[in-house]
User: What shape does this take?
Amino acid sequence: MAWLAATHTRASGQTFLAVDRNVAIRDYLVPIADALGKAVVPPDRPPRISRCRIGRIAEVLGYAPQHTFEQTLGELLDLARPPAPVD
Assistant: This one.
């Protein structure tokens, strides 16, 4: 998806949402920060929901997310967590 958005001629100046629904920043930032053992400093204002329209990436670039938001977040959390100690 990133390569397509970076190289497609119709992508210039566009913003795309590459998940299957709008999500608030807190829905992915907080769990990932927790997995990394980092504190999340609350913003001065409530987190925004993306202003991108669901489906734009499919209409403009012909791309459809291959995983749900929950699946992608789960994979990112697995990558962020430190490995379990080996005995």
Observations:
- The two ends are 39 Å apart (CA to CA).
- The chain has one domain: 2-80.
- Residues 2-80 form one domain.
- The chain is about 40% helix and 0% strand.
